[in-house]
Design goal:
heterodimer; A: alpha+beta; 6-stranded mixed beta sheet; 5-stranded antiparallel beta sheet; 18 strands; elongated; B: mainly alpha; 12 helices; 80% helix
């Protein structure tokens, strides 16, 4: 478990973290999610000892590590731009931490072989980082961090420098790896889809504060405030409330009540259909339908329809 | 057009550099190798060659160690007066070596601030000080940009993997800046061998004692009217410089 208590950090006049407290359960994969400048990377670096807090404390598995340098925290850290040791082979990169710990050579070799197999780089041991793709480099960096058997694994936007396809693959791969290795993992990301698809637990940050902590579904369905609601998914404003656009139902007639609106534009985005409408007083609304729903209604620009909210999340606007 | 450019460049370099240097080379060997050998193995010449090499051997490690420390401070730290330190590092490039010599006498000389408390002027320590001063910027200026470029992430990664500050420097930072350091060393060597201005002021040029190769060339040519001896000593000096240049080019190629 990682326990962060009342941590504050300033860079000059800029407040990066303002009295932040957070608990990360043992064995979980937790995401720190927020826009850039929200303080999430600073919090991760403070947990890792790469940055020191102005006040507050950090404990890992109950040990207060606030004053300890990164070397003594028992952490593994993965950087956005891989931080590969360029003058070392893949094998030497992964073995680095073990060599520092003066692990016997045969143990080091077998451990490195095992890790290279796990991360799918078994055939690349003698290559140099420049000879690897971005995704391969990041898997090497993960193997390197795992080699020293850290108590917690800290990942700072680990897939941020990769293209979308590789990012999605590595994301799934990391989730499977975590299910095998079970090391308590904290991952910083600004990508809500990444956080939702990979994490057991998400802490949403904004403006130096933690806004809400919970499971992906809980955060999506019961956001604590407008920021969390807006950051985790699309939001439509309807009848002085904020709702998810897929929670707006469209009827062809007034039988179910609701409010009259006119269709402005219909966009087919594959499975999802996005409908832009306008209320009589001129207020725009948008709704998401499935393709099947849209085909049944057969909507066209200029049609008059009736809108109502069909359950789901609503916050007062 | 291309041909014209090439001819212009070659003529320029030829007239300014190659022909004059070639003349010295020709004059050195016009009486055969034996004559050359005799004049560069006189006690004064041997003493001058070894003095020049001793100065290089002291100056290079000094400037490598302090150059690395300064480059690390400038590239990794943010502190008050960093801008001033940057400017001071470049000062030896801007100030004429003669002024350096005069300044050293003012400070260390018999009538200087320290009242000649230490035997610096007209002896090896003074020559080393002068040469260290004029070659101070090379290692710093070669290493600092490389440090900026490699950034701090690799060093941070090493720290999270358990490496101490020294281990991180030895195993991560130093290999990454190695070529920059070597390049700085080569420039320092070349400049140390060739230093003349500051040494004329502080060395005293006593043959067999405080006369370096450059001072020997000057003394033979101007004072002894021994032109042949001056050419021969120049050739030795050039030989050492060319050796350093070859080393430098090889390194440059490896860096590219």
């Amino acid at each position: 478990m990682i326990t962060v208590s009342h941590v504050t950090k300033r860079f000059g006049d800029f407040v990066a973290l303002d009295d932040v407290s957070l608990e990360i359960p043992d064995g979980s994969l937790t995401a720190l999610l927020g826009p850039s400048g929200s303080g999430k990377s600073t919090l991760l670096r403070i947990i890792g000892g790469l940055e020191s807090a102005d006040s507050g404390s950090v404990a890992i598995h109950g040990d207060d590590v606030t004053g300890l340098p990164p070397q003594k925290r028992g952490i593994g850290f993965v950087f956005q731009h891989y931080a590969a040791f360029k003058h070392m082979t893949v094998r030497d990169n992964v073995a680095f931490g073990l060599k520092i710990r003066k692990t016997p050579k045969d143990r080091t070799d077998s451990k490195v072989d095992e890790l290279l197999t796990i991360v799918g780089l078994a055939g690349f041991a003698q290559r140099y980082p420049q000879q690897l793709s971005g995704g391969q480099r990041q898997r090497m960096a993960l193997a390197r961090a795992l080699a020293v058997e850290p108590r917690v694994l800290l990942l700072d936007e680990p897939f941020g420098a990769l293209d979308a396809k590789v990012r999605a693959e590595l994301r799934e791969w990391l989730r499977r790896l975590h299910d095998e290795v079970h090391v308590t993992t904290l991952l910083v990301t600004h990508d809500q889809e990444e956080a939702m698809s990979i994490a057991d637990n998400i802490a949403v940050m904004d403006n130096a504060h933690i806004e809400q902590v919970g499971g992906p579904r809980e955060l999506y369905d019961r956001p604590a405030n407008q920021f969390v609601m807006g950051f985790l998914g699309p939001v439509a404003r309807f009848d002085r409330t904020l709702v998810r656009p897929h929670d707006i139902a469209i009827d062809a007639g007034p039988d179910h009540g609701g409010r009259e609106a006119q269709v402005r534009r219909v966009s087919y985005l594959g499975f999802e259909v996005r409908v832009e409408l306008v209320l009589p007083e001129g207020e725009p609304v948008f709704a998401q339908l499935t393709r099947t729903e849209a085909e049944e209604l057969d909507l066209a620009t200029g049609d008059i329809v009736w809108l109502r909210t069909a359950g789901g999340t609503a916050l007062a606007a | 057009m291309k041909l014209a450019l090439r001819i212009t460049a070659l003529t320029y370099i030829g007239a300014l550099v190659l022909v004059p240097l070639g003349m010295i080379f020709y004059r050195t060997f016009e009486h055969g190798f034996a004559a050359f050998w005799e004049t560069v193995t006189t006690p004064a010449a041997i003493s001058a060659i070894s003095l020049s090499l001793i100065i290089v051997a002291i100056v290079v490690p000094l400037n490598v160690v302090f150059g690395l420390v300064t480059a690390l401070a400038l590239a990794r730290g943010s502190f008050r007066g960093k801008g001033i330190l940057e400017a001071i590092v470049d000062l030896p490039f801007a100030v004429s070596p003669v002024i350096v010599g005069v300044a050293l006498i003012l400070f260390w000389g018999n009538d200087g601030w320290l009242g000649g408390a230490l035997p610096v002027i007209f002896s090896l320590p003074g020559m080393v000080l002068a040469t260290t001063f004029v070659t101070l910027p090379f290692v710093v200026r070669e290493v600092e940009p490389v440090l900026q470029e490699i950034g701090t992430e690799q060093e941070e990664a090493a720290a999270t993997l358990g490496a101490s500050k020294w281990q991180t420097f030895r195993r991560i930072t130093l290999p990454a800046i190695k070529v920059g350091v070597l390049y700085g060393v080569v420039l320092t060597v070349a400049r140390s061998l060739g230093e003349f201005g500051a040494l004329t002021v502080v060395a005293g040029a006593v043959p067999g004692e405080s006369q370096t190769l450059t001072l020997l060339v000057h003394a033979r040519y101007i004072d002894d009217h021994n032109a042949f001896g001056a050419y021969a000593a120049s050739t030795v000096l050039m030989g050492l410089a060319v050796l350093t240049l070859i080393l430098m080019t090889t390194l440059q190629r490896r860096r590219a």
